Amino acid sequence: MAAQPGDPPRTDGAPLEWLGPHVVLVPVKRFAEAKVRLAPALTPGARADLARAMAEAVIGAARPLPVAVVCDDVEVADWARSRGALIVWEPGRGLNGAVEAGVAQLAAAGVRRVVVAHGDLPYAEGLARIAPGEGIVLVPDRRHDGTNVAVVPSEIGFRFSYGPGSFDRHLEEAGRLGAAVEVLDDPLLAFDVDWPDDLDALVNAKRDPR
Q: Hey, what CATH class is 20-204 in?
């Protein structure tokens, strides 16, 4: 039966040859609920617009790799599909569970390595460049606290642990798995927007925040 308006989208049945060995996975929260920590500085509408614009920048940064957006919101799914992304529908799992389920789905589709990139990286570029390899690649944020990008072999069983201090936890997880790990300090991928101070930096930064 055909999907009806408002029905939750199913994971797209993309052919394996379209996916290829490397895919960028972008978790995207409902735009209206995104970036609540910016509430002192931005209206709800402005926060939603900013979240959408940054997520679009990350999708663009994935080219020429295919992109999968993991989400649980119909509006986000429709937006991502209109940008050519595969939809991985994972409601009610939270960020860590949704990303792990997304990686598992991509592994089942034949993907060997997954580039997990957060959707709030306004200067993101070159995600395809860091996809190849064998081990794990971790890109910390500017504070070396969070993990903005993680490249993982799809079947290694990597357990994601986002939130404050995630970079250290992800290093520990790589050690638990006995996997080689590369820490990539990339100023463009390290620039995320979580707090009002980040907005000031975003306004003042040039295209290259170095």
A: alpha beta
